[in-house]
Amino acid sequence: MKLSNGKGKMVAPLLINGEIHDVIVRSADTLLPILREQLGLTGAKQACQNGDCGACTVLINNQPSHACLSLAIETVNQSITTIEGLSNSPMQEAFVNNWAIQCGYCTPGFIVNSHALVTNHPNADDNIIEEWLQSNICRCTGYEEIKMAVKSVLKTSSE
Amino acid sequence: MEQTERTSVGQPEQRIDAVEKAAGKVKFTDDYQAPGMLHAKLVTSTEAHAYLQSVETAAAWKVPGVRAIITGETFPFHIGPILADRPPLAYEKVRYIGEPVAIIVADSDYQAKQAASKVVVTYKKLPIVHNVQQAFEASAPVIHNDLGEYTKIIGNVYPVAGTNIASRIKIRKGDFGTAWKNCTETISETYSFNLSDHVALETRSARVEINPAGKVIVHACTQSPFTIKKVFNQFFNLDVGSVIVHIPMVGGAFGGKGTVQLEPLAYLASKAVGGRLVKLTLSREEDMTTAPCRIGFDATIKLGVDHNGKLLAGQYTFLIDSGAYSDQAAGITRAAALDCTGPYHIPNVWCDSYCMYTNHPFATSFRGYGHPELTFAVERTMDKLAKNLNMCPIELREINTILPGHTSPTQAVITKNNIGDAQKCIALAKERIAWEEGERLVGENGKVRAKGLSLFWKTSTTATNAQAGAILTFEADGKVNLNCAAIELGQGTKTVLGQIVAEKLKMKLEDIHVTMEVNTQSDPHQWRTVASSTTFLAGRAVYAAAENAIGQLKKTASTVLQCAEEDLEVGGGRVYLKPDPTFGVEIKELALGYKFPNGHSIGGQIVGVGKHIQRHLTPMDKNTGFGKPGPWWSVGVQAVEVEIDERDFTYKILKAVTVLDGGTIINPMTATQQMRGGMYMGLSYAAIEKFVFDHNEEVENNDLRQYGTLRYGEQPEQYTVDFIETPAADGPYGARGIGEYGVIGAPAALANSLSNALQVELNELPLVPEYLWKMKKERRQ
Ligand code: FES
Ligand code: FES
After folding, report:
1. B508-529 per-position pLDDT tens digit
2. How many inter-chain contacts (A to B, CB under 8 Å) are there?
3. How far is the CA of B607 from the centre of ligand 2 (A)?
4. pLDDT tens, per residue, chain A with 159 residues
5. Which residues of chain A are within 8 Å of residue B31 when distances are taken between CB atoms?
6. Ligand 1 centroid vs A55 CA: distance in angstroms?
7. Does ligand 2 have an atom closer than 6 angstroms to the CB of A143?
8. Which of A86, A93, A140, A152 to mutate to test binding with chain B, by most B CBs within 10 Å of its CB?
9. Does the CB of A146 have a partner CB in chain B at under 8 Å?
10. Tell me: the pLDDT tens digits for B452-468?
11. Any atom of ligand 2 within 6 Å of the Cβ of B141
12. Nearest C-alpha of chain A: how many angstroms from B1?
């Protein structure tokens, strides 16, 4: 698939939360504005567009990825999961029950990343948790409640 | 306002916004799309101080999709919250790198960006003012030539024409000169720290459209919707009523969204395209350096004591780096002055607080409004003074604590109703940090563990007529809608206000439907959601609205039940007879008026209204500072324990402690969230945050990769939060404000603990390992 520099557009099918959606893609488009502007999936936030904050985290083939750094055209034929696709997941509940949410702007990114963490590492120790969650910034909570939320899910899933 | 058994106030009720936020379904300002909406992008200055010679837009116009390009000539007037000194788009001159010079409006975001990169700006460079010390010198280049002519928007601002002093605030209490001579021990210390940023995770965003009837519809992430209306009225000559501001939930603000910068630009953009809907969202880089940031701060503090260690005299000189424009830094200059002593009783006080222009990005309010900075300087000085006196630093604080009967620096009388109990806070904090175990211990691993502590206080320096209102409308099922203009920024205010209503009406929180969005056309006026004032002001308003609704319920019920209103009580969804609670009527029968079996109806909908306005606040006297600046002072103590490795000067924060007297705590869990988050923010600021400027005064670290914030795993290993609940006589159920307080003492406590650990005096921020190493090396030499 080749697109002309910046001007050309094509219709591309993306597999998002288990459904195929046709979207219009420029070669320079990252996945983030496509999700947000064309599909109304605004759970992924745009807070730096530079891979520095994790607010835009989605899963691509079950691996956490920055939607702001993933070229949309490269996600054709991949399976994309956004926060909207994780409804009623244990991690969402854990964030609510552990008071890990204040303004909620970092929350979708954190939940998606933490969900992937517990699926990839059901026995994650503190070092692994730290390595995974350093990619996300929360400016409100001080991380304590987020730590408790993630650990509560790890505990139940390893039991 | 006392009640015996409380069911909602004082309970850790779950936040009413948590489930929706966890689902990623909350729509923040930038999350809305509309077909036909245009996108705006700013062209920003690449010079710190220069005349604008030309702004060429021909090449930008050639980019497809461009609909308008706006430059400073469109609106060559000055705006500002305190002193009107800032053109929304640079006009004739630029004063910082990042200043908006032009706005591009285009069909899509990428077209606007492309066009912005094609605007050619030609500058004629002027000498740069690099820091506050230079700004203060008589020979310094003057940044605002017309300083003497700027309009004062509020009274307490004193610019000095022909200089870089945007405002000078004086405090004169007692006789400092004489008292200083009588001191047996004195100390003088200086402190300095750079500008930094809020880094609210949601960058600022605004949408504006002007409908054909002239109504200006603004959607914004702001803490001050009614101020937007005021600014549009003052500067664009629009009726206040024609400006309608909508605010969804806000993704963190920390004071940075309290001032009005983006909305006027979005308005000019919409106007340029015939009123079409235009969205202007800042990139992270713009959010850090085009939008306002946090002040820089230089302080000199002199303290003198008698032979018992009692403070006799204090002198405070603050140079506040406000950057290119005074914005809220002019207010911070005042706030830092009026609380300059910290929570100590000092009979003789002399303070000069200067708001200084430099060619840095301009600064605005930041959670704590100057108090974290001021507290750092005061509390570091207290620790050093204790050392010089060979006294325990806590004892020095204990014997000098401000108490009822004393006066504040502005000579406001402290009473037991308007201040928390500092001594109780000290006692508990001492226990929590295990002070008696030792301030400094060398572990078996060779690492040093040390503790540091800080007292702090703050009053809410609101406008003297700051106010809030609330409306309760009852539904057919007897449940209640709460509408008020308090903004949910993450602090949990909507939950707390719902709890106050639930408590007063003796209903369940889930039966109170709190409107999360704010709409200035349907919500009653509220000053702003800043200054830790919302639980107090809006809390009193919703309390009054509930009381008002209860009166209406009783009135209708008294006819239905054929009895006197005084004999009735409201609770559990019913209005009933006090002596015989089984005799009553359900609220849902009254909510939309009561209908008798024969069809006759009375009463109509229950609509409770309430409001509250500050009482007896005054501005400060120009020469002495005399005045009553705020309704109460919350006080508290914070403490930190660190473990440092002296081989590489890296350290871990083992423990962070807050003990705050915030009056009655309405929701212990949201309050704890605020304290933990506040400590994190204060510690992150103190440990690693600052803008790094190059020699042209360009911020080199204007993104989240280079601008460090403490990340997951770098937070304290343990946070402890305790509240002392000395009720505030005036507060709803005895509550005072707490939103900012978790931040205030944290930088000082960290610096005190590290100074203890390394046995050096750390007077600068941030406390990065390199700085610690340098200070230690100097000391060894
Ligand atoms: S927006 Fe993608 S990492 Fe920040
Ligand atoms: S909850 Fe606000 S940034 Fe995390």
Report:
1. 999 999 999 999 999 999 999 9
2. 165
3. 35
4. 444 445 689 999 999 999 999 999 999 999 999 999 999 999 999 999 999 999 999 999 999 999 999 999 999 999 999 999 999 999 999 999 999 999 999 999 999 999 999 999 999 999 999 999 999 999 999 999 999 999 999 988 776
5. 36, 42
6. 5
7. no
8. A140
9. yes
10. 999 999 998 888 899 99
11. no
12. 29
Instruction: Name chain B contacts of A141, Cβ cutoff 8 Å.
Output: 673, 676-677, 680
Rounded Cα gap, residues B410 and B339, in angstroms: 8
Q: pTM for this one? A: 0.96
Q: E strands, B226-325, where?
A: 243-247, 278-281, 293-294, 296-305, 311-323
**Ligand 1 pocket, residue A35 CB under 6 Å:** no
Ligand 1 pocket residue status of A66, Cβ below 6 Å = yes
Which of A102, A112, A128 is the best mutation test for B, with the most CBs of B within 10 A?
A: A102
Average pLDDT over residues B41-55: 98
φ, ψ at B500 (rounded to 5°): -65, -40
Residue of B nearest to A138 (CA): B201
Q: Are B612 and B545 in contact (CB under 8 A)?
A: no
Ligand 1 nearest-atom number relative to CA A54: 3
Contact B709 A96 (CB under 8 A): no
| B321-368 residue pLDDT tens | 999 999 999 999 999 999 999 999 999 999 999 999 999 999 999 999
Instruction: Give the CA count within 13 Å in the CB-facing half-sphere of B202.
Output: 33
Q: Enumerate residues 6+ apart whose C-beta is below 8 A from B267.
A: B208, B210, B216, B218, B232, B236
User: ipTM of the assembly?
Assistant: 0.96
Provide the angle, in degrees to the nearest 10, between the axes of the packed helices A144-158 and A90-97.
140
Domains recognised in chain A with CATH numbers: 2-84 (3.10.20.30), 88-158 (1.10.150.120)
Question: Which domains, from first to last, does chain B contain?
Answer: 18-26+466-613 (3.30.365.10), 33-126+201-252+257-289 (3.90.1170.50), 368-461+631-780 (3.30.365.10)
* Rounded distance between C-alpha atoms, residue B48 and residue B178, angstroms: 45
- Give the CA distances from residue B432 to residues B394, B642, B653, B657, in Å, rounded to whole numbers and listed in that order: 14, 14, 15, 7
Q: Which amino acid makes up residue B163?
A: T
